[in-house]
């Protein structure tokens, strides 16, 4: 029941700049759409820029949903973060097992094998996989630990005496 109602919704609500391509095309959605959106948010946090700045929402729908464009990842971005963002946006794989990119002449029409792609949002990682990739990037900061309660119910960091209470 959950799979057919919650995870495969056909309703579309959101802001085009953060929406997955399949949502922009009004195709069925699932949790992988949220993974795509998380990639946009991570890009936004990493670049301190608004996604698709200078474009109106309809231009974003065309660019992302139908022209298969993605935000540019700056060369100076942390490579580990850039890799996570790319994985969040991943939807393409070659249609055949051939990995070469040689041009094929078919009666005067030329095309690259890289242009023959299957678009599949299932290729995106899960949030659990994204969290696992983010974990090594987490930097511990002093004093950021949440105090744990002791058996008496007091927190270990709680230095106030009983007389002060």
Automatic annotation (TrEMBL):
Protein kinase domain residues are 1-109
What keywords appear on the UniProt entry?
Answer: Kinase, Transferase
Tell me the segments the record calls region Disordered: 138-165
Q: Where is the signal peptide?
A: none
UniProt KW Transferase keyword: yes
Q: Which GO terms describe its molecular function?
A: ATP binding; protein serine/threonine kinase activity
* Pfam families, alphabetized: PK_Tyr_Ser-Thr
Alphabetical list of InterPro entries matching this protein? Kinase-like_dom_sf, Prot_kinase_dom, Ser-Thr/Tyr_kinase_cat_dom, Ser/Thr_Kinases-Pseudokinases
Name of the molecule in the record: Probable serine/threonine-protein kinase SIS8
* Organism for this UniProt entry: Cicer arietinum
